[in-house]
Predict the 3D structure of the following.
Amino acid sequence: MGATYLVVGLGNIGAEYAGTRHNMGFMILDAWAQASNVLFKTDRYGDVAEVSWKGRWFVLLKPSTYMNLSGKAVRYWMQQLGLPLENLVVISDDINLPFGTLRMRANGSSGGHNGLENIAEMLESEQWARIRVGIGNQFSRGGQIDYVLGDLSADEKAVIPGLANKIVHGMMDFATLGVQRAMNTVNAKKAQNSPSETPEC
C-alpha cells in the first residue's frame, strides 16, 4: 500500500441533518465517493470509504461522533492508520465565506468552528490542512444556529459535485506535489472541468 491520507468531512449524523449547511463536509465526501464508485462502510467512530489513485490511498471519514466531538474520531483514525499530521485534511463549512467559495490552508485556527476546535484539542495541534467550504451568512442577528442547521436549496445542492471535483483535484496535488500546490488548485476562482482522472478504487 502506498502513501495514505485521511480526508475528514465534518457534519452531524442523523437524517434530520443530512441536507443541512453544517453537513457540507459530509456532502463533499459523499459526492467524491459517488464519483469514484465506492461505498461508505460503518466502522468505529464513523463511516469510512477508501479511494485509490496512482498508488496512493485516500481514506474518507465521516465521523459519527457529532460535530462537537469530531476530534475523537479523527484521533482514533490517525492512530489506527499510523499517519503524521501532514497527511490529514479536514473539510468543513464556513459562514464567513460566500456560498461555494473554497479556501484551503496548511494550518490555522478553528475560526470559531466547533468541529475544528475539537480536532485541534484532541490532536494537541493546529498543524494540519483544512478546506473550508463557504455556506454564506444570510441570516439575521441571533439566527446563526438555525441558518447552519437549515437545509440547502436545490440550486445549492446542485453545486456540490463541482465543488467536490475541485477538491478531488486539490487532493491529487496534495498527495503528489504538496500542500502549497493543492492550495493553488483549491483556492483558484476557476472551477475544475470534469476530471479526466478522478481517483477510483
About this structure: Residues 4-187 form a domain with the Rossmann fold fold (CATH 3.40.50.1470). The chain has a mean pLDDT of 92.
